[in-house]
Structure formats: C-alpha cells, structure tokens
C-alpha cells in the first residue's frame, strides 16, 4: 500500500549559485558520505556534471522528505538520506542512523527516480508499506 508520494523540481542555476557562494560546504551539508565522493569525481572532470548531480540529489531528498510526511525535521536530515545507484543504473535510497531506524520500524520501502536537463533537476519518490 502507498504510504506517501513526493515530487520536487529544482533550478540547477540556483544550486550552482549557492555552490559558488558557499563552496564545498554546501555540498557537504546536502550529500552523504558516498554521494560526496561521486560529486567530487564528477565536479573534477566536468563542473557542470557535478552541479547537476548535486541538484538531482537535493531534489530527491526534498521529494523523499515530502513522501514520508515530515519535511526536513528529525530524524530526516540531508546526510541521513543518500541517493545511490544500483549496478543497473537504477537509483535507490539508502538511509542512515535514526532515519533508517524510523523507516524500518514503520516497515516502509522507497522508490525514487531522478532526472535533469540543462536548467532543472526533478525527482519523484513513492513510499510503500512492506507487508
């Protein structure tokens, strides 16, 4: 059964401007341990790809927080929710700490998709109950 649905669209230009003002501190606030490594690799090769990656992760976390119905308040934090990629390329959600415990206690599972174009990143999340 569906527990919640969340969607978000994000202006990549706004993410780029914030990154230019705040530097890598901004990426470190939004991205989890695995994500920050991927971001650094992509940004080093092609900065625009790194920024697009950051924007898609920002958007997916916003969509996830809406789908679980709590927004950005504990136990939901930017770094406790990571958007990871399966070997097939399919995106998934990996949770950490108190957020993972809360999610498991509620017996929930998550599905996510992300997309980006030159100016926008978008994400859609569906949360289901496991039974």
Give a nutshell description of this structure.
The protein is of the alpha+beta class and 131 residues long.
Task: Give structural attributes.
Ribosomal Protein L22, Chain A; 47% helix; alpha+beta; 131 residues
Give structural notes.
It catalyses: apo-[ACP] + CoA = holo-[ACP] + adenosine 3',5'-bisphosphate + H(+). It is an enzyme of class 2 (transferase). Keywords: Cytoplasm, Fatty acid biosynthesis, Fatty acid metabolism, Lipid biosynthesis, Lipid metabolism, Magnesium, Metal-binding, Transferase. Residues 4-123 form the 4'-phosphopantetheinyl transferase domain. Its main location: cytoplasm. The chain is α+β, with helices and mostly antiparallel strands. It has one domain: 4'-phosphopantetheinyl transferase domain (Ribosomal Protein L22, Chain A). The protein contains five helices and five strands. The strands form two sheets. The chain has a three-stranded antiparallel β-sheet. The protein has a two-stranded antiparallel ribbon with strand order 2-3. β2 and β3 (91-95) form a beta hairpin. α1 packs across α4 and α3 (33-45) runs antiparallel to α4. The model has no long low-confidence stretch (mean pLDDT 95).
């Amino acid at each position: 059964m569906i527990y919640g649905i969340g969607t978000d669209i994000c202006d990549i230009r706004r993410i780029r401007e914030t990154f230019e003002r705040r530097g890598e501190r901004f990426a470190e606030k939004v991205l989890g341990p695995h994500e920050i490594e991927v971001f650094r690799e992509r940004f080093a090769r092609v900065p625009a790809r790194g920024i697009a990656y950051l924007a898609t992760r920002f958007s997916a976390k916003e969509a996830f927080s809406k789908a679980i119905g709590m927004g950005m308040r504990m136990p939901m934090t930017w770094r406790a929710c990571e958007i990871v990629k399966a070997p097939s390329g399919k995106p998934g959600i990996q949770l950490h700490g108190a957020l993972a415990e809360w999610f498991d206690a509620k017996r929930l599972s998550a599905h996510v998709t992300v997309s980006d174009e030159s100016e926008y990143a978008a994400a859609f999340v569906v949360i289901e109950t496991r039974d």
